[in-house]
Amino acid sequence: MKSDHLLGLIPSLDNAPLSEWIRLLGGFSILLFVAKSIHSLLFSPLGHVPGPWYTSFTSLELAIHCLRFQKCEYIQGLFNKYGPVVRIGPNKVAFLDSDSVKIVYGTGRFNKSSWYKGVQICDQDHAMTTLDHAGHAIRRKTFTQFYAPAHLAKYQPEIHDAVLELMKILDILDGSVSIDCLPLFRHMMVDINGITMFGSHIGVIHEWGSGGEHPLSTAVSDFPKRGALKGLLPSLLWSLVSSIPNSRWQQFCVADRVLVDFVGKRVKETSRFLKEHPEQEKDAGRSTLLSTLLLYRYSNTDEAVPEQDVLTESIAHLIAGSDTTATTLAYICWELSKRPDIMRSLREEIDLAMPDARSIPDIQVLQNLPYLNALLKEGLRLYSAAPAMLERVVPIGKDFAVHNVAIPGDTIVGSQAWSSHRRPEIFPQPEKFMPERWLPGAETEEMLAHFMPYGYGSRNCAGQNMSQLMLRILVTSLARNFDVVSKVSETNDKTMSMRDSFVMFPAALECKLSFVPRSNL
């Protein structure tokens, strides 16, 4: 009878209006959330991990900071408050420890979290989005030889020509106006990657010089931010949000399709060329990324890489190799505009190494310039283009602890270069740009152990050799030929305050500088 009485309190739903259904389902959802929250708060296996109490049942604050593009700073703040191991969500822990970095990203072979699926290309995997180590290793072998330093060096003539084209454009501008060098450098990198990856002289930098914005360069810039947002939102919500009828927003949401259209044509052209000219398979002197992928054969089956994989891999490399290097370069140029002492020290070295201002030295010469090397390391320390937390999953059944804090299996863990590069006990005055800290005799093993601008371990950035090559050539060429000038009213600490969507960018979304031709060349 008691149960009948209780059931009588619930309104009959046979003929209930829709509002009754919504009210009942809403109430049930709230009760379920409260019950799960209480259970997680009291019984979670991560209950002993330091952190805000509410992270035991919600990631809302983390999500809010992600939407504000301030995730790195948020996690840094938690480290400052709670120490080197901190819970940032119901099943997520961030840590700051170089020994644990070696385990998680190295010897432990922890797999990636599902977050990386947000940066798939048209819902297709590439090396970065392949979660398991074994699958990634197979994919990475298909392009490893392309990024060998000796192989990339063979593209120097074309790279030098492209950089000299940039110099001519800046000569014409004559330092008369401030220019946003973020799209400028991105266009430069897209052009160079077009040559080395696809064998295509796209002419992107020429279009920028004519006052235009190439849609391919725009898509390269949009994609990482789009991926971060897509990875944060539930798939249904992303479907709704991506349907908002705004032309610029739609361009942003379909960035991957723009890239597929461009690269897809190059894949078909290169594939057809290699079939018509099979002798190219014997030419191991120099190859584009596309031909490297198309000619690769898996050792266990002797099969070719599927064309869809060639497409997605090539697009991923174009994105990763363009906007990131351009952003770091822009920040370095901003520092040079503020610090005549640094520019002076740099020029004392490069003016001797590059006596002819329009004859770029071989990369072997640039690699042996101590102050240039120190400058680039400091730029990568403070302005690493991908400083975000690199998520991994603790293997089930595997013991793992950070600073004696046990982390159970299936927990998402990660460290971030942002925090590793700002430890004051390792890098005194961590927010100050100090190239001299990396000079021979000053650089320490501890500094190198905490230096991870390209990630760490077997899943680090495959294109880091290309990034280093381009930074050396571009910084040298710009400093040798131009005075870099910034107006505080346009470009300052506030406008250049760093934001992150996995990759980093300035708060103002621009970096306005002027490049004045040197008078004493």
Characterization of this structure:
Its cofactor is heme. Pathway: Secondary metabolite biosynthesis. GO terms for molecular function: heme binding; iron ion binding; monooxygenase activity; oxidoreductase activity, acting on paired donors, with incorporation or reduction of molecular oxygen. The chain is 52% helix and 8% strand. The mean pLDDT is 90. The protein has 521 residues and is of the alpha+beta class. The relative contact order is 0.14. The protein contains 23 helices and twelve strands. Helix 14 packs across helix 15.
Condensed summary:
The chain has 521 residues and is α+β, with helices and mostly antiparallel strands. It has helices spanning 2-9, 18-43, 60-67, 71-82, 98-107, 133-141, 149-153, 156-173, 181-198, 204-209, 215-232, 235-241, 247-253, 255-276, 289-295, 307-320, 323-338, 340-353, 363-366, 370-382, 417-420, 445-449, 464-481, and strands spanning 85-89, 92-95, 111-112, 179-180, 392-393, 401-402, 405-406, 412-414, 482-485, 498-501, 503-506, 512-517. It is globular, with a radius of gyration of 26 Å.
Large-scale geometry: globular
Provide the CATH top-level class of the domain at 137-359 and 483-517: Mainly Alpha
Number of helices: 23
Low-confidence stretches: none
The main β sheet shows up as:
5 strands, mixed
Strand order of the largest sheet: 1-2-8-5-3
Mean pLDDT comes to 90
Class by SSE composition: alpha+beta
CATH architecture of the domain at 137-359 and 483-517: Orthogonal Bundle
Helix content: 40-55%
Strand content: 5-15%
* Head-to-tail CA distance between termini: 99 Å
Number of strands: 12
CA radius of gyration is 26 Å
CATH superfamily heading of the domain at 137-359 and 483-517: Cytochrome P450
Which topology of the domain at 137-359 and 483-517 does CATH recognise? Cytochrome p450
